[in-house]
Queue: 4 jobs
Job 1
Amino acid sequence: MVEKSLFPFPSYNVFMPAAGPKPEPERTPPERHPIPEVYTLETTGLLVIALLILILTLIRYWHHIPWGAR
């Protein structure tokens, strides 16, 4: 059934056929990718920097630490 319009362009308020449910793709278990070496090196570098800051802080303030409070 085609509606006749008074305007030369189609109307936006016309009925559209209902969309059916989309077929779901087959689910496959995700493959486990190895961790890139860059992330391992980055973590190692951050741990080394944190340890270095801790050591330098202990060296600088060694004589201010109240060892009797331990």
Job 2
Amino acid sequence: MIPKFTVIQYLRNKKRVPYGVLVAVKDENILHRGYAFGYSLCNKKDKFNKAMALKVALGRANVDGMKANDNPPHDVRRAAPSFFDRCKKYYKV
């Protein structure tokens, strides 16, 4: 089940086929942002499954979120700034 106040963005390739997902979940325990961040990327050999991708991304957001010393994949780093801007507006941080 997707928690209330969750922001979701799917990553898509040039043909607009989804291959990953970014999620932000409201979390009052995170002082500087107010939300936890998680992501999931599909291996190129596999077929993308939205339900599984959301489950993995939400699990990452709830367990430890995105730490400053994490080194996410290039696709996530490329999409993250615009996603964080969207989250700041949504969560009014």
Job 3
Amino acid sequence: MQEREIVINPDETVSVVRREVIKTISLPEYLDTLRAGEFITPILPYGTIQAMFKSGGLRKAFVIQVEPLQQEITLEAHESTPNGRTTGYRKFKLWIPWAIYGVKFAGNTCENVWVRFARTRILKPDDTLYYPPMSNISLDGKVCMGNSIGEVINKEKTVEDKAVVAVHDFWASSFVDDSTPDEKAIPDLIWGRDFLHIYERWEDLGEKALMMRWKEAETYETYTKRLFT
């Protein structure tokens, strides 16, 4: 039996697809096959715009796109004093543009998380992605995942749940002020000598921060090629 389906593609074209139904089974049977691990669940994390499955599902990666929103972050700042090193915490509420998360797995273990920003929803491979001007993220977009973060992510039962938790825990973790800001990644409007000043200026902009001139990093195609290798 064949069914016709209309598919709206990311490049704003429309495809008419004929799909052949190989087999129809009951819902309980389907759920049993998922629990038995006989094939990969088609239920993807919310916001997934692209996914990769290799080596019989042993290697997986998801690209998750999230709309602009306000995020609260915690900055962990260290200061040297005559009595030793002290640690202080400060919270900021930052407006975040479109965020593109890459979450990669080896088996059921989360290996890495990558983050890039975008001005609009991703529609085509050559769309430009931008550097997130944040500590805890290297220039290639890879998140510095502490052991505690990785442990929380990997406690989840399914890979799909782990991917969602990875995005959540990226924001819930403390951002450190130990690294030196790189001018290549920081918009001129919020540039500062350290991340404390950068986050202060970013917060002061309010929702207008969404219109900042973010620094260009790479295309979406280049980003996914690195993620999916």
Job 4
Amino acid sequence: MAITLTSLVAACGGVDREGSRDDIVEAMRNQGLEPDVECVDHVLDGFSDESLESIDDQLQDPTTTDPQTRQFLDALVDCSTPATAAP
């Protein structure tokens, strides 16, 4: 399973973590996943603003092999399950 993100939300003076979380959760849902929002918050909390800005730059290249970016995306995968269709 993979998650495709195109960017995080950067704001003046740092990363807008709440906005980033909301965008990540929306992207995950658009890809048929059901995210654990608290887990996504925990993942974001595990990275400094500087690291998240670097990851944001790396996300512009869909073929990135940057270890930190892969770690971030893998952690987000662990925060999600496939969404189930309602009966």
